[in-house]
UniProtKB/TrEMBL annotation, chain A:
GO terms for biological process: quaternary ammonium group transport. GO terms for molecular function: ATP binding; ATP hydrolysis activity; transmembrane transporter activity. The keyword Hydrolase does not apply. This is ATP-binding cassette domain-containing protein. Keywords: ATP-binding, Nucleotide-binding, Transport. The keyword ATP-binding applies. SUPFAM superfamilies: MOP-like, P-loop containing nucleoside triphosphate hydrolases. GO terms for cellular component: ATP-binding cassette (ABC) transporter complex. InterPro entries: AAA+_ATPase, ABC_SmlMolc_Importer, ABC_transporter-like_ATP-bd, ABC_transporter-like_CS, Mo/tungstate-bd_C_term_dom, P-loop_NTPase, Transp-assoc_OB_typ2. Residues 3-233 form the ABC transporter domain. It comes from the Bacteria.
UniProtKB/TrEMBL annotation, chain B:
It is found in: Cell membrane. Keywords: Membrane, Transmembrane, Transmembrane helix, Transport. It is a multi-pass membrane protein. This is ABC transporter permease subunit. Residues 76-274, 353-545 form the ABC transmembrane type-1 domain. The chain crosses the membrane at residues 22-48, 80-102, 114-135, 155-180, 209-233, 253-273, 304-331, 351-377, 389-411, 417-437, 470-492, 529-553. It comes from Thalassovita mangrovi. Belongs to the binding-protein-dependent transport system permease family.
Amino acid sequence: MYLTVRNATKTYGTFTALDDVSISIEQGEFVCLLGPSGCGKTTLLRLIAGLTDLDAGEILLENEPLSALPARKRGFGIVFQSYSLFPNMTVAENIGYGLKIRNVPAGDIAARVRELLDLIKLPHLADNFPGQLSGGQQQRIALARAIAVDPRVLLLDEPLSALDAKVRADLRSEIRQLQRSLGIPTLMVTHDQEEALALADKIICMNHGTVVQAGSPEELYHKPATRFVADFMGISNLIDTGTIRDVQPDLLTHRPEGADDAYIACIRPEQIALTPAEDGPATVRTIGFLGNLRRIELDSPFGPLVVETHGAIDCREGQSVQLTITPEACTWVANDTAEGAV
Amino acid sequence: MTGAAQPARAASTRQGIDSDKLLTLVCVGLPLIGLLLFFLYPMAIVFLRSLTTADGSYGLGNYAEVLGSTGFWRATRHSLLMGGATTVLSVVLGFVIAHGLYRCAFRGKWLIRAVIVLPLLAPSLVQALGLIFLLGRNGLLNRFFGLEIDIYGFWGLLIANTLYALPQAVMIIGAALVLLDARTYEAAEVMGASPARQFRDLTLPAARFGILNAAFVTFTITITDFGNAAVIGGDYSVLATEIYSQVIGLRNFNMGAVVGIMLLLPTVLSYYIERQAMKRQQGQQATNAQPFVPQFTALRDLPMAALCLAICAMIVAVIGIVVYASFVRLWPYNLSLTPRHYDITLAGGYSSLWITIVISLMAAAGGTLAVFLLGIGLRRLPKALMQPIQLLAAMPAAVPGMVLGLAYILTFNSTATPLYLLYGTAALIAIVNFYHYHTQSFLTVMTGFRQLPPALEEAAGSLGAGMGRIAVNIIAPFVAPMLVSVFFFLFMRSMVTLSAVVFLTTPHLSVAAVTIMRLDDAGLTSQAAAFSTCVMAVVCIALLGMKAVLAYLSRRSARGRAD
Amino acid sequence: MKSWISKLTTSLLALGAATAASAGSITVYTALEEEEIAGYIAAAEASMPDLDINVLRLSTGKLGARILAEADNPQADVIWGWAVTAMMDPRILGMLEPYKAKGVDVLADSFRDPDDRWFAPIGYMGAFCVNTARLEQKGLPMPKSWKDLEDPAFKGEVLMPDPNSSGTGYLHVNAVLQNMGEEAGWAQLEAVDPNMAQYTSSGSKPCKAARVGEYTVGISLAFTAMSSIEEGYPLAMVFPEGGVGYELEASGLMASSGNKDDAKKFLDWTMSDEAIALYGQYKALITVPGVKASAASEKAGLPSDISTVLAKVDFAKSAQNQIAVKQTWKDKLGR
C-alpha cells in the first residue's frame, strides 16, 4: 500500500462527515472518490491533503504516519474545482511557485515551466494572467502547477465540474494520459459516475460518511454491493425479491440467503434482451434515441423497466415484447436505505 | 523517499508545525498585545476610575449619580437620536454615492471619489468654520438670500456629523457593492426581473454586510464625537459634551469616565446586532466573480449623477469657503485677498507640520501592518477565540478621543511599568492615533479578507508554502487595495486628529492639529484656517500618492481579471 | 532645504525617547496667551541664558485635566499663569510646594496664597463683545450692563459660555453672584436666560461668534475682544456696569520638580522688574501696585484705572463655592 487511510473519523458539531473510513491507494494508481454531495468525499480528500485535521484514525504514506505533517510538508499536489490560480501571478509564476518555494534555481524553474506548458499544450500563455484565460486553460495550468513539484500524491477536487461538456471530456482524457505517463498516485473526488468509470483504476463509492464499496469500475458497475451503489453507478432496474419470485423464479439462483427485503435484484438495462412478440408480457411505453443506443421504457410484470439496446430495434411504442434475462445478468445487492441514492 | 531520509523529515516536520503555529501566534499575538496594552489596559484604568468615588473608595456611587441626573438622560436621548439620524442619513447618502460609483455609468466619477474623502483630511476646525461661514446666521446662504435660518442645534449637528461620517460609509459600502457578481444580474435580467426588482432582490441583500458595517461605524463615531457638537450643536447636549463638561469644566475625570464607559454599551449592542444580522450571510466569494460593468441608462444614471454631484458640491463648498477665507483679510467684513494669514509665527509656526507627517507615517505603517497581521491570524483561529478578539478590535471607535487621551496619560505616565518609557514620545502619539481609528482600519481589512477564496491559500499550502510565504505572496497582493486604503485613512486622520493627541503632546512635541487649536485659541482663526489649508495640501499630496498606487495595483489586477 | 533637514532631524530625535528633565532645563505648564508667552520666554531666556524653558500651552480647562491626569507622576516643574480658581482645587494645591518668590511681597494679600503655594501678579478679565455692525443692522441699543441684556430685543442675540464646561463661564456667573448677592444674582442670570441663544463650551467662542456677526453680544474675555478689535473686526468691548468678572493668573512650584533650583529661578524672574515691565506691555490686569496696563488695552476701551470696572471678587470663596454654584446653575439654567 502506498497511501493508506485507517479508521478516519471527522465530525463537525453533531454532523458526522466521516465515520470510520479506511481506504488505500497503490503506487501509480488512479483512485476516484465517488458519491453524492455531502457524502464525505471532499472531507476525506482534505484530510489526506492536510487541510483539515483528523478526529480519529490515521493516514499513512509508505507506512509513515502523516497526521503530524502540515499540508505544506506533505509534498502533495492539489487542484480545486474553482481554478484557484493566484490572480497576482502570471501563468509561468503560478506553475513555478512550488519550485520557487523549494529554492530551485531560477533557470531550472524556467525550464520545468516550459516543459510543463508544452505538456499541457499552452506554451504561448506563459506571461498571461489567470483572469485572461478560459476555465479549461486555467484548470490545465492548475494541474501543471500541482505536478510541477513531482508530488508524491496528486489530489483532484472535482477538477472538471466547472467546465463545459466538450472541455470536460478533453481535459478528462488529458488528465488520464498525464497520470499514466507520470505514474503519480492520484486521488480524485467526483460526483460524476461517468467520469469515475472513465478515469479510475479503482472507485471508492461513499455515502453518509462511510465507504459503501471499493473496487474496479467493472466491479462497481456490474457487481454493485448495495442498492445505493447500483443506483448511483448508472441506470439500473431494481426489483424486489417477491416480484422476482412471482415472475421469473430462476433469477433467484444466485441470491444470498436472507429475508425478502434484505436483498434486491439489480438488472442493468443492457442486460435485458427484447424480442417483439404479439403475446409478450411487456409493453413498450417510450423509446428514447441517444445516438449510439436506444433507451426503451417498458411496462412489464416486474413493474416499469428500462432497457438499452445498441443499433436499431424492430419495435414501436405500444408494442408487446418478450423479455430475456439470464440469471447471470441479475445481481443481488444489499437493500440499504434507498433515500441515500436519491 | 528513502528510509534514511525519514528521521530528518520527521524532525523538520515537528519544527515545521511549530513555525506555522508560531507565526499564527505572532500574527494574532502582536496585534492582540497591542490591543491589550494600548486599548484594553487604558480602558480598564478608565473603568477603575469610573468606580472610584469622591472619597477614594470603590463603588458604584458615580454611576448612581450619573444615572440619577436629568442632564444625563437628556444627553443620552439626544445622542441616540442624533446617532440614529446620522446613521440613517449617512448610510442612505453613502449608499447613493457608492451605488453611483460602482453600479451606475456616468462621467466624472474620479471627481466624486476625490471629493468624498475631503472631510476625512480636513481638520475639524475647517468643517466647523465652513459650516458656520456657509450656513451660519451671518453665513453666505442667509446673507445672500436674506434668510434667517438658524442651524445651531439638531440640524446643524446632523449636517456636520453626516459630513464627517459620509466618507467612511461610502468606503465600506463601496467595498461591498464592487464585489457583486455580474452573472447573477445577467441571470435576473434573463428571468425578467426589472431593474428595481434587481436592486431590491440582489443589490440590497448582497450589500448588507457593507451597509451594516457602515451603520455600525457611523453610529459609533457619531455618538462619541465632541468637536461637531461643541461647534454647531448649540444647546443640543449629547453624551460627548457631558463628558467634556465633567472632565474639562468640572475637572472630575471619574464622572467623565462613567459616561465614557456608558458610551461603550450602545456600541457593543449595535456591534452585537450587526453580527447577528451577519450570521446568515457567510457565503463564500467565488474565485472567479465577473465584475459588473454598468451600461448607461438615462433614467437611472442622470438623477444618480446629479445627486452625487450635489452632495459633493456641498462638501467642496464647506471646505472651499474656509480655504478662501484663509486668503481673505477679515472674514466676512473685508474680503480683499491677502496672504498675510500664512505668515504664522505663534504656537510654534509650521514646525509641527514635519513631525506630524513623521508621526502619521508611523501610525499608518504600523497600523496597517498590525491589522493585516490580525486579519491573517484570525483566519486561522477557532471561532470561539476569534469572536472576542473581533469584538475587541471593533470597539475602540466607541471611545471618545478625549477619554482615550486622558486614559493614555493615566496609563503611560505611571512609572510602575516600563511602558512609562513611551510617555512623551512621538511613538505614543502614533499609537494613540492608530488605536483611535482601529475600528475602521480593522473592518476595512476584514472586508478585504472576506473576498479572499480559501482555495488560494490551500493551493499555496499544498505546494509547500508556509504561512509567511502565503501571507506575502498570496494574501498581501490580494488585499493590497484595502491595505493601501487603510494606510492612507490612518495617515489622513493622524494628520488632523486632535481630541486624543492634545493630551499627549509635550513642549518638544506638538502636532499640526494642536497648532491649529492653539492658533484658534489665540483668536487667530484666519491663521488657523491658513495652517489647516497647508495641512490639507500636504495630505492631498499624500492622497495623490495613494491614487497612483491604487491605479497601479488595479491596472495589475485588471490585467489579471479581464476575461 | 537645510532647515527642513534639521527640523526633520530634531523631529526624528524626538521620536525616540521623552526628553527627561535635566539640569538647566525646566518644563512649564501655562494657560497664558500665545503672544505673551512668546514675549516673556524670549526675555526670560535672554536674562537666564543657561536655562532652557520648555513651555506647554493648553487652555485653562484642558490644562487642568492634564495636570490632574498626570498627578501620579507630574511632568511639570512650574505651573505658570493659570486661573487661580482652578489652582485652588485642593488636589492641585496638594501638588504645589510653598515657595516665596523674590519680590512677591509687593503683592497684596489677596493676590497670593497665605502659605505661598501660589502668587498672581497678573490676571485677565471678562467682557461683553458687541458686534457694532450687527447691533446697528438689528437696531439694538448698546448694552451697558447685564440688566440691559434682559431687553427682549436681544432675544437669540446673546451668547455666553456654560460655567460647567468653561472657566470663563464660571468667571462671569461668579462675578454676578458675588457682586449682586446670591439671590439677586441668580434672578439676574435667569432674567437674561430667555435671550441667550446658546451656552457654549468654550470661553472664547462667544466673542469669536460675535465678531463674525453670528450673534450680537458674546459674553467672553477682554483679551479676545481686544485682539479682535486689533484685527479690525467691528467689535466693541463693554464692561458691564457694576463690575465685570476677572480671574488671577497664578504661578506655583510643583513639589515633584526634579530641578527646583531652576524652577525657582524662573518663578523669581516672573516677579522681576523686567517681567513686570513686560506685563505692562501685554496685560490688561496687573496686580503689582503702580504698574500701568498696556497701551493696547487702553486703546480698546479699558479705563486707566481698571479697578473701577472690576467686580468685587473673593477668590477663596469663588473656589470654595465652585461646585455648588455650578450645580445650581445646572439645575436652574442647564439646557
